[in-house]
Amino acid sequence: MTYTQTSPDHGAAAHAGDVDDAARVLEPDGTRVPDAELDPWIADLSPHEMRALHRDMVLTRRLDAEGVALQRQGQLALWAPCRGQEAVQVGTAHALAPGDFVFPSYREHGVLLGRGAQPADYVLAWRGEEHSAYDHTTINAAPPQIIIGAQSLHATGWAMGAQRDGSTDVAVAYYGDGATSQGDVNEAMVFASSFRAPVVFVCSNNQWAISEPVTVQAKYPIAGRAPGFGIPSMRIDGNDALACVAAMRWALDRARRGEGPSFIEAVTYRMGPHTTSDDPTRYRDADEVEAWTRRDPIERLEAYLRAEGMLDDSGLDEVARAADALAADVRAACIGATTRDPATLFDHVYAEPHGPLERQKAEYVQYLAGFEK
Amino acid sequence: MTYTQTSPDHGAAAHAGDVDDAARVLEPDGTRVPDAELDPWIADLSPHEMRALHRDMVLTRRLDAEGVALQRQGQLALWAPCRGQEAVQVGTAHALAPGDFVFPSYREHGVLLGRGAQPADYVLAWRGEEHSAYDHTTINAAPPQIIIGAQSLHATGWAMGAQRDGSTDVAVAYYGDGATSQGDVNEAMVFASSFRAPVVFVCSNNQWAISEPVTVQAKYPIAGRAPGFGIPSMRIDGNDALACVAAMRWALDRARRGEGPSFIEAVTYRMGPHTTSDDPTRYRDADEVEAWTRRDPIERLEAYLRAEGMLDDSGLDEVARAADALAADVRAACIGATTRDPATLFDHVYAEPHGPLERQKAEYVQYLAGFEK
Amino acid sequence: MTTLTLGAAINAGLSKALETDDRVLLMGEDIGKLGGVFRVTDGLQQRFGAQRVVDTPLAEAGIVGTAVGLALRGYRPVVEIQFDGFVYPAFDQIVCQVAKLHYRSSGRIRMPLVIRIPWAGGVGAAEHHSESPEAYFVHTAGLRVVAASNPQDAYVMLRQAVASDDPVIFFEPKRLYHAKGEVDLEADLADAPPMHLARVAQEGTDATIVTYGAQVRTALDAALAAEDEGLSLEVIDLRSLSPIDMNTVAASVRKTGRVVVTHEAAREAGVGAELVASITEQCFEYLEAPPQRVTGHDIPYPPSKLEKHHVPDLDRILFAVDRVMERGTGSSAASAAAIEGGVR
Amino acid sequence: MTTLTLGAAINAGLSKALETDDRVLLMGEDIGKLGGVFRVTDGLQQRFGAQRVVDTPLAEAGIVGTAVGLALRGYRPVVEIQFDGFVYPAFDQIVCQVAKLHYRSSGRIRMPLVIRIPWAGGVGAAEHHSESPEAYFVHTAGLRVVAASNPQDAYVMLRQAVASDDPVIFFEPKRLYHAKGEVDLEADLADAPPMHLARVAQEGTDATIVTYGAQVRTALDAALAAEDEGLSLEVIDLRSLSPIDMNTVAASVRKTGRVVVTHEAAREAGVGAELVASITEQCFEYLEAPPQRVTGHDIPYPPSKLEKHHVPDLDRILFAVDRVMERGTGSSAASAAAIEGGVR
Ligand SMILES: Cc1ncc(C[n+]2csc(CCOP(=O)(O)OP(=O)(O)O)c2C)c(N)n1
Ligand SMILES: Cc1ncc(C[n+]2csc(CCOP(=O)(O)OP(=O)(O)O)c2C)c(N)n1
Ligand SMILES: [Mg+2]
Ligand SMILES: [Mg+2]
């Protein structure tokens, strides 16, 4: 539903983590249910596209599992798992046009996949070889952002630029529930609203910011904030890939028609630890995790596609093989990575010549050479 | 009204500067009109209290005029006039209990008056003698804040302390429409809501942030933001002193009863320049200013009190004399101020002993002494 | 040549930049109709429109953060921070994003951003309006930091900053906004000295004063006063604070053997510390006396009635000159007090 | 005496502070149930309750800004910033409010705030997780800045910081969190050396190494390696970065005449610049060679696979020692390479 009301009295009943009142078109068991606001946006979604959604979610999950495994094996320094959040990542990315530009956080592996990332793109930063592995212009994605919420302003500024260029390109900022507490994220709403910038804010409310439940950040549904800034919002079931496509299309369409920013809160769940360094058993109940396994986004779409006859065992096999192939490629890209020459440390600090730093580089190179004698 | 709805569609009609839909109990001509939400809070307001409100507004205006005059005469470096905003400043301050603590911006002269400031308290900072003239514990007011919005967090933290102390003291943050764009102000709403802190946010929407109209900060009424954070808000006519008392009592009462933060948007107008350094003719129309003279907060209450027989010429004379006396005291405190010994420059950087700085002080004092020989 | 104030020279530089490159845009608080609180952007919105001279919401992180996004989209934003003391809310965006994005992206992303900051004290302003935050940015790798001391440099360096593909923190000494000088508005940028070079503002042989921004004037006044004492002081205007042009500084120190560094910012870990450290490292055997720092005290900026005791003046510089000359301290300083009235 | 890791020593210090003074409270992200991402606050929420060990919303300006308000109400907040790189959103509140409120109020307001920052690199972390921002705070008047290098100091200095009526930025060298040492948990705070004093970590006569934080270990290792070369190095652990205990530093430099300053932060206008400048000013006639700085390069912190080339190690320190000793550079460094494996 379009979020137009945030009465404190109404809110007292709602809870920032509730998923029941979020909009969806697929029930957890895959049953298709109508939603007047979402349905129009996916009326034309072909079986082919739905299968692609399913496939990309499976690929994302497989890739994510590979990231965890590579970290366990000492090949990566760290990994931030996205298991459970495949629908919102893949679904929203699916709705994008090539010219759109995404500003992801560190956990948006499914978004990168949707943008056409190459195997090495997923892992080199986590391995510590590069701060950002991919070329932002190739996949139209900014480097993954670690400073929580900072990218929301970058997306807004990029959108202001797109607007000035007279293009219909849209910027998308991805961030979590925790990020909504940051000043930057709120300032982004102010700027986006004030300038009617063609930007979409996608908040993946995965219920946790490391060990803090979403209720530390918000008492009432996060989607209720944007309207106060003049930004219409939708609160959707983030484990329903079709709802995610629909909401994203609604938002992108508004942006392309010059109606400015929109906000999407996708209610989902972080099934794994915050990162491979984290131990969630210290702060959350197994019951809660268990309950969310029954809302799995992949099983949900799979059940629907099977019931509708759009996907069968052989299709699933094919997807599983593609997923394994991707994982193998990622693994190869990771293990095959070599660390660059230390002299390159000094490169790209500045785009233009910088004498003192060039001297520091020369001195360090000379110093290193001393060991080779 | 309690702000519970901020539909973008509804909002498209509303305008962040509109005053017509703000709640009031006095029309601009002083006619008393009913308001179901405000009325109960001022049902017991005595003629004596209403006269005090009027008197404090007149004193504030006179004091403010003296500040401008002192600046013109070179006695002050700068002054930020509050003319036109007396009702919200005096009205909200009037509702406070002694133990409450205010966190003002630089323009809240009427709030300081309500807190019992002494003549020198208004001017010494503007003269450049001190950063903050008054003792915060005497008038329960933090130093006036120049970093826009920063005090909203201080108020929230203070309220968290009051809460821990089990007291019923309430913190009040005062800021302008421009401040609502700052990250700090939004983070303050997050913290206040999350911890149910007994804090009241009073936003004086005086339509301008220096040269920028409020529409640069907000497309829709600012009061619509707080509910999204789980904070109920009221949007009131900030030139109606009685409405200001009522709204503040509503908010304080909530805080004291443990119901947490509230937000008040008082729609008012900055009749003068931003500061004495500013030239508003560069950016706003005389017509607009002219229109607002017809909504004068003092005339409005005066008309009402006269019509009700609560105030007569002799009462007005007495108020005028008190105002002149205050202005004379302020002038005397200002002109009589002396600049402190330069050696004190080094004092109070640290609360505890600091060898290197003490040596810097000693060296500078010795250096100065060299000129006296 | 045209006679312009420093403020007008920057205005002319901005105007030229907007004219020359349609990817340049200005952003800030009150820079449009009002023309900025110092009128530095006066008339620009009227001339170039509100899409290119943008009054932003009141949020510095927002201004710099959206400018980062605009740069990613190919724009060259020139951001105004209204006063020195209001840059801190944008510090995170400047340090983690503006300064690092080129490096973080292995050179793929460029950040041709200029952040203009009306800067430093001596104008009788209120709290937070007289800050000297330059050392924070000098310590931050990835940023270039410059400070103009006269209208000609202000005009040229502003245009160089806009043309640079690196982010530039551009400090404007606000107490010189009304100082006048000759500006060559037509000169070719390619002929101008590059932004990163220091300038010998006055030649001398007995000692070197290294400084920047508004203190250059004070140093020149000090050099004039010292002449009466028979002292020949060389004054170096750094212009670029990061990188520092140590070639020019070291050449001077090797010549004079004595050096006074002066700035308004606090001493502890300030730009003066870097200068004294680098000078010592590079000119150790030439130094005839320990370098002296004449800086703001290690205190928050004081109330304006007392600021004349904080901002280093002619006397304090001469006092330090006496020390590096190893003369009885205080003599020339006290005698110079007579002419101090005319200095600031 | 108890053997504790540095992290556990801080935990013990926090626990003691919470126990001793009920106006003390802890605030930060994930410090409650989780006990912090480094487990430094482990068990404290369980023991002291959620009103005193507070999981805050994810907003650093908010954390520090509300702590300011709590201090105004008479509390003594101890704030945790989760990682060094996340302190910048709070920079405005720290510089304009925390550091200045005592001064701004002519001493009427006190800011007994501690801001704990897990700090610096060498642990293979992701971007923004290995920053060394100390110079920003050292340059800011009104703050005290300290850095512990061992469990005993960590325990005592944490408690001194909490007891101080001034705001203290408390840097915790994260790569030493698991380093063990003896801690006297019962000792009287009054008997401990004051927080602002440096410590001679090792006595020596040929040259002085001045450092702080995790680099103290590296410097001690370098001193050990240098012994084999017949060199006696004195190592000074600053402990307090603002103010710097120049008495201890200068006494050592006057003795040795030669000095190497090392830290992980970038060189330009870093704490090392202040040290070299102050040493030169105060010990000029004792210096036999120009002081050397061994610092992180003037680059953003690199990707972790390359960090060993950024964080100064034993070899780089010895290389600099050779230079201050005016010996053929590189000799002892190269020979020391053999034992480097065991160092970090
Ligand atoms: C400015 C900043 N503060 C703190 C952190 C540390 N941190 C990393 S992730 C995280 C939680 C983020 O939660 P959320 O926004 O919900 O995203 P999620 O991890 O759940 O995807 C925190 C506190 C950070 N990276 N940046
Ligand atoms: C962080 C910060 N940025 C900019 C300024 C400069 N400034 C001072 S007052 C002001 C406008 C404030 O407008 P508003 O919040 O509406 O308050 P008003 O002055 O109207 O009372 C600005 C931009 C400042 N003081 N602090
Ligand atoms: Mg989350
Ligand atoms: Mg205003």
Task: Characterise the protein shown here.
The complex is a heterotetramer, with two copies of chain A (373 residues) and two copies of chain C (344 residues). Chain A is of the alpha/beta class. Chain A folds into two domains: 39-340, Rossmann fold; 343-372. Chain A has helices at 8-13, 39-42, 47-72, 86-94, 109-114, 119-127, 136-139, 150-164, 183-195, 241-256, 286-293, 297-307, 313-335, 355-372; strands spanning 2-3, 101-103, 171-176, 199-205, 208-209, 212-213, 233-237, 262-267. In chain A, the strands form two sheets. A six-stranded mixed sheet of chain A has the order 1-7-8-4-3-2, sandwiched between helices. In chain A, strands 5-6 form a two-stranded antiparallel ribbon. In chain A, helix 3 packs parallel to helix 13 and helix 6 (119-127) packs across helix 13 (313-335). The longest helix of chain A has 26 residues, at 47-72. The N and C termini of chain A lie far apart (71 Å). The model of chain A is unreliable at 1-13 (pLDDT under 50). In chain C, helix 10 links the parallel strand 13 and strand 14 (292-296). By secondary structure, chain C is α/β, with parallel strands linked by helices. Chain C folds into two domains: 2-183, Thiamin diphosphate (ThDP)-binding fold, Pyr/PP domains (Rossmann fold, 3-Layer(aba) Sandwich), CATH 3.40.50; 199-340, Rossmann fold. The longest helix of chain C is centred in the N-terminal third of the chain and has 15 residues, at 6-20. Residues 329-344 of chain C have low confidence and may be disordered. In chain C, helix 8 crosses helix 11 (314-324). At the C-D interface, helix 4, helix 6 and helix 10 of C face helix 4, helix 6 and helix 10 of D. The structure holds thiamine diphosphate (TPP) (2 copies) and magnesium ion (MG) (2 copies). The site of one magnesium ion has 6 residues of chain B, from strand 4. Chains A, B: Keywords: Oxidoreductase, Pyruvate, Thiamine pyrophosphate. Chains A, B: Its cofactor is thiamine diphosphate. Chains A, B: GO terms for molecular function: magnesium ion binding; oxidoreductase activity, acting on the aldehyde or oxo group of donors, disulfide as acceptor. Chains A, B: InterPro entries: Alpha-ketoacid_DH_E1_comp, DH_E1, PdhA/BkdA, THDP-binding. Chains A, B: It holds the Pfam family E1_dh.
